[in-house]
Write a structure and sequence with these properties.
binds pyridoxal-5'-phosphate; Aspartate Aminotransferase, domain 1; Aspartate Aminotransferase, domain 2; 7-stranded mixed β-sheet; alpha/beta
């Protein structure tokens, strides 16, 4: 496959952009080689600058649940742009969006818009701390909540030890307020609450973690978390930046029947434009400025273009028809890939929740980060490049979820399966 123009652009990008990219995973470091540059996308397909076409399972990392360049989203953005790109004073879209989110997600009684998932999680944590007047937060090993300082922490040597900064530049003094426990481990959670009684402001969790590949909560785990947070006066924060409006119109919380205190959103609610939001119980949300003491703001928050795009996407999704279609496509992909791996004799653990999936190259089940780390990443690299060279684009890392959109067709799935059957035999 000829990618000469992508190679030339990447060489130029390296001179002016750190690593040539504006978000690290795009650099293909985990799989080797160089990224390709895209200048067009439609439905479930993307085209690189050399004119190569790919079936896309990245979906701009989650937002493109309706496929790329959905006509209703494009029309909404164009219409909004004709009236101006930003006002810096309330606009009607903000009221429509807030009402719609509150209607679709019953645990959300009030909501504040911001500009990214990172901002949503960072602000929800600040709000939880301000509301409870406590400093410590609990997060889970392998869960990603954006790149704010106190959330860039993963497990140190044990669940009860203070976290170590995951990134240079995060002061250890910040990181020590973040306690990290393994996912799907109620005992670890029990111990962390016992060891930090009266000090934990909240627990933040991806209810279905999709940033270390994909694994699901064991039955009862989310229910247990709801109970233990309540019993300890800590807030339960669901980070649904990825799962919100993807696993159901009401997100993972609808699917699993849990009512968190606060929820973070992003990705899908921007329809492909930069957006984030966080919301929850009204008594907590009213701790935010200008009514409450917790400061949070944004020049472009509630941006009319982003909200027009997001509203068009949510309106399209709310019927519920989309989720039935996504489940059907997901099930077909899963069945086919599991079969293909079996006939190729390659051990693959295929995890899926609706339209999110991950095939780990390991024989054992994957319920947390430690399990995920057992996968054969060299094998994944060969698989990734084999698929890419046959025009199927998967996320360039073993530790990312794949996404199906309503624009994927039976033909796309069939093509993916026939390519995978061939590539798996070469591994
Ligand atoms: C993508 C993501 C974020 C960060 O959102 P950005 O818009 O990239 O800042 C936070 N949490 C989860 C679960 C995500 O998937």
């Amino acid at each position: 496959m000829n990618r000469a123009q992508s190679e030339a652009l990447f060489a130029e990008a390296l001179k002016f952009i750190p690593g040539g990219v504006n978000s690290p995973v795009r650099a293909f470091r985990a799989v080797g080689g160089h990224p390709f540059f895209v200048n067009r996308a439609a439905r479930a397909h993307i085209w690189d600058v050399d004119g190569n076409e790919y079936v896309d399972y990245v979906g701009t990392w989650g937002p493109a649940i309706l496929g790329h360049a959905h006509p209703k989203i494009i029309a909404a953005v164009k219409a909004a742009a004709d009236h101006g790109t930003s006002f810096g004073i309330p606009n009607p879209f903000e009221v429509t969006m807030a009402k719609l989110i509150c209607a679709l997600v019953p645990s959300v009684e009030k909501v504040r818009m911001c500009n990214s998932g990172t901002e949503a999680c960072m602000s929800a944590i600040r709000l939880a701390r301000g509301f409870t007047k406590r400093d410590k937060i609990v997060k889970f090993d392998g869960c990603y909540h954006g790149h704010a300082d106190s959330l860039l922490v993963k497990a140190g040597s044990g669940a009860l030890t203070f976290g170590n900064p995951d990134s240079a530049g995060v002061p250890a003094d910040f990181a020590r307020h973040t306690l990290v426990v393994p996912f799907n481990d109620p005992d670890a959670l029990r111990s962390v609450f016992a060891a930090n009684a009266g000090q934990i402001a909240g627990v933040i969790i991806e209810p279905v973690p999709g940033n270390a590949g994909l694994y699901l909560p064991r039955p009862g785990f989310l229910e247990f978390m709801r109970k233990i947070t309540q019993a300890n006066g800590a807030l339960l924060i669901f980070d649904e930046v990825m799962t919100g409006f993807r696993l159901a119109a009401g997100g993972a919380q609808e699917r699993f029947g849990i009512r968190p205190d606060l929820t973070c959103f992003g990705k899908i609610i921007g329809g492909g434009l930069p957006v984030g939001a966080f919301g929850g119980r009204a008594d907590i949300m009213d701790y935010l400025a200008p009514v409450g003491p917790v400061y949070q703001a944004g020049t472009l928050s509630g941006n009319p273009l982003a909200l027009a795009a997001g509203l068009a996407a949510l309106e399209e999704l709310r019927s519920g028809e989309a989720y039935r279609k996504l489940e059907g496509l997901g099930a077909a992909l899963e069945a086919g890939l599991v079969d293909a791996a079996k006939s190729a004799g390659v051990p693959v653990q295929f995890n899926r929740c609706g339209s999110m999936f991950c095939g780990y190259f390991t024989a054992g089940p994957v319920h947390n980060l430690a399990d995920a780390m057992q996968s054969d990443r060299e094998r994944f690299k060969r698989y990734f490049h084999g698929m890419l060279d046959a025009s199927v684009y998967l996320a360039p890392s073993q530790f990312e979820a794949g996404f199906i959109s309503t624009a994927h067709t039976a033909t796309d799935i069939a093509k993916t399966l026939s390519v995978a059957a061939k590539v798996l035999k070469t591994l």
